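Troubleshooting: if your tokenizer reports a length mismatch, compare your output against this known-good record of 255 residues.
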Amino acid sequence: MKLVLFYFLMIFSLISLSQDFELRSYSIAQGLPQSQVYDITEDHNGNLWIATQGGGIAKFDGVEFDVFTTREGLINNFVSSIYQDSRKNLWIATSNGLSQYNGIRFRNYKLEGEAFKVSVSSIAENKKQELFFGTSNGVYKRTKKGIFNISKEIGLSGNTIIDVYIDESQNLWVAHNKGFSRIKKGKAHHFSDATLSSVFPQCFFEGVHQNIWIGTYGRGLVKVRGDKYQFVPETDGLIILDVFKEKNILWLSTF
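Known-good structure output:
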């Protein structure tokens, strides 16, 4: 995404102080279908898949772009996230449902026949190969029987979901418009007290000792251990859109 690109550029600028790197830009002139990039993921063959806002998705093999839009079978051209599951299928989250791509054809899902269109923001998978989707209509889960809205059973009915994340203990973390929640063995714990009412969580990352780090919109980092949370005062005021750990350093994507 624009945010992901900024994240990599930030790391590049720090590393380049001690090493020589070549920075090459790609835009519409080089074959990118649209200039607003929201997500980038790498598949098992080393290709990059790029999500755009209005131009569908593009596969980049290091030389050229191959573009996929509604003409090729994609459900919608406004794409927010791309995820490759453990079976090597690509899942594409769009502003009007999901597409699954197996390398040959697309299979599309408009979620649960709602009267209004459901936009999908994020995707995560657990070790049981169950997929979870964060949407404008709560959380959906895909099992062998199909895709179902599980918001009511985890206490998040009517919530707009910003991000979903699976930690190493296979707990599901959900960032939503009222705070954030952890679903552990089917039981939900909601972090949504008065202090968190003005916190808009954006992303999750699991660090050492099972600490969960949460990037927020304007309140910096939140650290969660067990059922307790604390703000990291040095980051207060930051809009954090992604968190990544390299060795013993946390990298933050901000703007």
